Amino acid sequence: MKQKVSERAGTHAESSPLEFIQQENPDLLIADIRMPDMDGLELIEQIRMFNDVIRIIVLSGYDTFYYAQKAMQYGAERYILKPIEEDELIVHIFNSVYERFSQGRILLHFC
Q1: What is the set of domains in the chain, with CATH numbers?
Q2: What pLDDT digit, counting tens, does each position of 80-95 carry?
Q3: Which of 15, 50, 79, 90 is most deeply packed, by most CB within 10 A?
């Protein structure tokens, strides 16, 4: 079965992260706390209004309890502090999508 991977970075994409998620319905979202259009917490909160199954990993350079607490309240699976080693991020991604991957469907979204 063919697997689809999508990477969306910065403001060069044609749609907003929220519109992309509504259209593509990815299994995993990796979001930064700070983004150009809206912050990651706002994005997660809005996503949860229509999608409660997407797995969410939050990357952040902010080591504050408030951001981590809010991210978890909105259903983020992980709150990871930057900088992060590539192999460590890969382990987090693998653990987050293993179940969906074993079902033969995975769509990743990076913003």
Answers
A1: 17-110 (3.40.50.2300)
A2: 999 999 999 999 998 8
A3: 79
